[in-house]
Amino acid sequence: SQQGEEDPQALSIQEGENATMNCSYKTSINNLQWYRQNSGRGLVHLILIRSNEREKHSGRLRVTLDTSKKSSSLLITASRAADTASYFCATEYAGGTSYGKLTFGQGTILTVHP
Amino acid sequence: DGGITQSPKYLFRKEGQNVTLSCEQNLNHDAMYWYRQDPGQGLRLIYYSQIVNDFQKGDIAEGYSVSREKKESFPLTVTSAQKNPTAFYLCASSIGNEQYFGPGTRLTVT
């Protein structure tokens, strides 16, 4: 399976602290994306990093990508209670006719306590 | 108001019955996808379609069928051949790399 793995599976922090989630994958990729899911809802796209990029920022989000280690991390700075959700990484496989097809990780459940 | 709609939000069926889940988008996206999510798990791809009248099997297509007769619509049928149909089903569409998701349908089969 190409499915990635995320750790930790669950993360509990206090408001104002930073949250770091990690994602590992198995194959060469075109890009890696992070999505957020509130309980029982659809996913929302957060940020995309291409295979030739090493770091990307969007507001309080910082994503890094290390293609040599096949890993990525998502950092949420100055977390808020509203950041409580599940976070998933997804990779687009580089090769074949898989354009647009994503493989999702298992997710990290983030709980931010007020 | 653009977006993806899935209906119904909750669906209950008896074992042995086929059931069709609706997915409609007005984003003018070419590609559409169906995923299954089980408790505490990530998403697994069932079927995807990159263009009207064409679709491909994903990683767990057995027991499911789809059609793509219109750009806006990509219905998923869960057949009686699917051994464990109870799950949360998510539909998505894309025009580039980013996927846009619907709110999901929670299917319970007893």
Structure commentary:
The complex is a heterodimer of chains A (114) and B (110). Chain A contains no helices and eleven strands. Chain A has strands spanning 5-7, 10-14, 19-24, 29-37, 43-50, 55-58, 61-66, 71-76, 85-93, 102-104, 108-113. The mean pLDDT of chain A is 93. With 114 residues, chain A is mostly beta strands. With 110 residues, chain B is mostly beta strands. Chain B contains no helices and eleven strands. Chain B has strands spanning 4-7, 10-13, 19-25, 31-37, 43-51, 54-57, 64-66, 76-78, 87-94, 99-101, 105-109. In chain B, the strands form two sheets. In chain B, strands 2, 4, 5, 6, 9, 10 and 11 form a seven-stranded mixed β-sheet that branches. Chain B has a four-stranded antiparallel β-sheet with strand order 1-3-8-7, with no helix packed on it. In chain B, a hairpin with a 5-residue loop joins strand 4 (31-37) and strand 5 (43-51). Chain B starts with a strand and ends with a strand. The mean pLDDT of chain B is 94.
